[in-house]
Amino acid sequence: MAEITRLLMLIDSEPAQSRLITAVAAREGWRTLVVGNAPEAISALDEADGRSVSAIILDQSVPGESACDLIASLKQKRPDAPVLMLTASASPLLAVEAMRSGANDYLIKPIAPERLMQALRAATEREAPKQELQPLAEKLQGTLDFDSMIGTSPSFRSALAQAAKAARGNGSVLIEGESGTGKEMLLRAMHGASPRAKAPLRIVNIGTSSGSAVESLLFGHEPNAFPGAFDRQVGAIQHADTGTVVLDDVDRLEPQVQENLLAMIESGIVRPVGAEHGFRVDVRFMATSNLPLEDMVSEGHFRPELLKAIGATRIVLPPLRERSGDIAPLTRHFLARIGEEPGLRHLSITDSALSLLAAFDWPGNVRQLQAVLFRAAVFCDAEALTPESFPDLNEMLGDREDTGEAKQSHDGMGVLLYQDDGNLRPLEEIEADVIRLAIGHYRGRMTEVARRLGIGRSTLYRKLSDLGIDNAA
């Protein structure tokens, strides 16, 4: 058990949930102070224990004042303590209101213990990014198909083409890439386009469970197979018979489980832990890895036979910093989806704000970009996001000078569409800029400029005269 050095305040009136969170938090080095209602929570913060609270978890249904009013009161007393809200509502409307009141993150119940602690870790790590750049526990819901995979960079389109081809088959698929690049989303799109689309899909998150727990999740177990195994459990592989099993974070699979999984794949028989017999299954395996598995094989951390078994098709998703030209279309795509969420509005974004986003390296990749845009949209009162909508990024990057290369790295940078106040520029000004851009791009070859703009030469020269543009611009 980790050394207990931090205090967590849990505001919760459900005894079973309180016991679970307290037990899980203890394994992570937290001591938990449980209070059952809003007045108790406010009062506790003024006591000796309460003054050392490092984080707060709040159940939305706790008695007393409304959850949002309580969050505002908690942040007023302890502005530095992150607040995470648990809610049974799948609608983000309450989450939006909670974040506007000061909540750092929200999680939808029922929630796996490890997922809860991941959110708490993200909010409290000593080297955690500033709040604006922290990940969100919940993801935007939406269609998961190849049309929703946004990007034009050659490496990304190549990966999509490879995935679309592999989706139509029955072979195993391994997708490698950094966290947040969209590996799980791509696998779900592949499953939806596969011959097994109507069959079961089971995702096993290996990175959030111990070796023995993963083995039980995969293969199932019999009663009394190990301490705490009171009932029989059917594993994900057996549940997914005729369908697909996704091994998320397969690079974190322990050696013994690797061996057992390989034996299962080779034989086609899944044997629950503690069972004397097995079951023949027909399952397609897909897997994700944050690390290159070939490197792990070379280092002796991953079985080469298992890599061959789960990686008939291997796809690498590039990090966002290597496809900065996709930041603008991704941003507009996410803003359109965010605008459909209850409590939020459709927002545009200025070119100066897009330039700011394009200048960041995005260590959390596409997932981090989505979270940053969601937070910005929650607090935006204008019609468009501007650099001021991203205060942390603006503080880090706002004084930089854009290079020509950076300006050309994503669409919308050559021609400004918005004024600094977020309003669109007049059409005449935009049209003049487009023509100037085309003349410069095609080095004054007016026949080519007219052809590319889809107009006749005489029309082009008339526009030059009307707009007062020198054709040597």
Describe the structure.
By secondary structure, this protein is of the alpha/beta class. Among the domains are: 123 residues, 3-Layer(aba) Sandwich (Rossmann fold), CATH 3.40.50; 163 residues, 3-Layer(aba) Sandwich (Rossmann fold); 41 residues, Arc Repressor Mutant, subunit A (Orthogonal Bundle). It contains 20 helices and 16 strands. Helix 4 links the parallel strand 4 and strand 5. The chain is flat and about 85 Å long. It starts with 5 loop residues before the first strand and ends in a 6-residue tail after the last helix. The relative contact order is 0.08.
Rg from C-alpha positions? 26 Å
* Fourth-level CATH superfamily of the domain at 154-316: P-loop containing nucleotide triphosphate hydrolases
Q: What number is the mean pLDDT?
A: 84
CATH architecture descriptor text of the domain at 154-316: 3-Layer(aba) Sandwich
Please report the number of helical segments: 20
Between the first and last Cα atoms, what is the distance in angstroms?
69 Å
Order of strands, main sheet, comes to 2-1-3-4-5
Record field, number of beta strands: 16
* Structural class by SSE content: alpha/beta
How much of the sequence lies in strands comes to 5-15%
Instruction: Note the overall shape.
Output: flat
| Oligomeric state as shown | single chain
